[in-house]
Amino acid sequence: MHASSQRLALSKTQFVKYANRCLWAYDVALGVFLKHLIDAAEASGESDTAWLSSAVPSWRRVACISDFTLMLDENWSATQRETFVVLAETACTRLAARESITADEIAGWPLLEDLRIFPRGANEVHTAPVVELGRAIIALVSGELPEEPKGETWLYGTPTGRCTLRTLNR
After folding, report:
1. 123 close to 69: Cβ distance less than 8 angstroms
2. What are phi and psi of 160, to 5 degrees?
């Protein structure tokens, strides 16, 4: 998909950071991706490992509270990074099996006590931009995320897909 500039209030975005790289994500898409990542982690049989049992509650908070940043641990071992990538790929595969997810279904997911993902008035969320976001997060963790255009930063998961945001050069 061709990257283009788009107007989207930053209040609808969340920062995703790994090591010295980052990207921005539309908060609804990030929440939907993280829900599927959590499901993959819980189904993997590895959710009781120390690093994953610490990561999953953090992913729950980020999915439901858009003020939080998704900080992926740059100190993960190679095995932990590989496990994360496998879980993220599983989440992307499950998401790609559907064209969209209704807002009612999203609002019904119990992720963190009584908090839910807020679909921002959408009747449904198309999964293609969510999968694109998931694949960007995989590329970020794998060190394969392309450099963003000069003076811009990536924004993934918007209803129309990846776009760029202009950065302030001071």
Report:
1. no
2. -100, 5
Question: Quick one: CA dihedral 44, 49, 53, 58, positive or negative?
Answer: negative
pTM of the model: 0.90
Kindly give the confidence (pLDDT) of every residue in the chain, 170 residues in length, as a single tens digit, with 9 standing for 90 and above.
333 434 445 568 899 999 999 999 999 999 999 999 999 999 998 777 899 999 999 999 999 888 889 999 999 999 999 999 999 999 999 999 999 999 999 988 888 888 878 777 789 999 999 999 999 999 999 999 999 989 998 899 999 999 988 887 54
- CB-based contact 56:70 (threshold 8 Å): no
Query: Among candidates 58, 18, 35, which has minimal Cα distance to 154?
Result: 18
Beta carbons of 162 and 134 less than 8 angstroms apart: no
- Sequence letter at residue 167: T
Question: Which residues, 6+ apart, have CB-to-CB distance to 37 below 8 Å?
Answer: 59, 87, 88, 91, 134
Identify whether the C-beta of residue 168 lies closer than 8 Å to the C-beta of residue 36: no
Cα–Cα distance, 55 to 11 (Å, whole number)? 24
Domain definitions of the chain by residue range: 10-166
Question: Look-up: residue for tokens 């921002």?
Answer: 120
